[in-house]
Amino acid sequence: MGALDFLSDYFSNNFDVSIRKRKKHKVMQTVNIKVKIDCDGCERKIKNAVSSIKGAKSVEVNRKMHKVTVSGYVDPKKVLKRVQSTGKKKAELWPYVPYTMVAYPYAAGAYDKRAPAGFVRKSEQAQAQPGGTDDKLMSLFSDENPNACIVM
Question: How far apart are CA 40 and CA 44, in angstroms?
Fold first, then answer.
């Protein structure tokens, strides 16, 4: 038995490498938060609080849309808590999607008159049902359908 065999047995018995915990790597993401911003002081306070989060690469504050955008290796819940710690208790994750992404933008759950221009609220009622009657009727009079109405 050589010295290398002795060392390999010694390290494998005394130091188990597989038990070590591996650190999870956070994913680069963009977090959007809706928060009411009234003045320059509020904007500055939120920007300073959020930019001090570990992993935050860029922070953008849009006062007109009441939106804070944070990009980096951050957790959305931690960003939301940090914004709420500045005194903005009604802060929430961005609840809106672009108008063009929703099948029925004027459905009861989707339409929000306080939403910024071009956005509607995310909701299940506004999404199209796969294989629903609307899809069948639209494909019936489609240009790609060879059996479509001849009158068209």
Answer: 6
- Position 52, amino acid: S
What pLDDT is stored for residue 125 in this prediction? Answer: 57
Residue listed under structure tokens 């650190």: 23
Q: Report the 3 state secondary structure along the chain.
A: CCHHHHHHHHHHHHCCHHHCCCCCCCCCEEEEEECCCCCHHHHHHHHHHHHCCCCEEEEEEECCCCEEEEEECCCHHHHHHHHHCCCCCCCEECCEEEHHHCCCCCCCCCCCCCCCCCEEECCCCCCCCCCCHHHHHHHHCCCCCCCCCCCC
Is the overall model pTM greater than 0.90, yes or no? no
Q: Compute the distance between CA of residue 6 and CA of residue 64 in angstroms, rounded to an integer.
A: 70
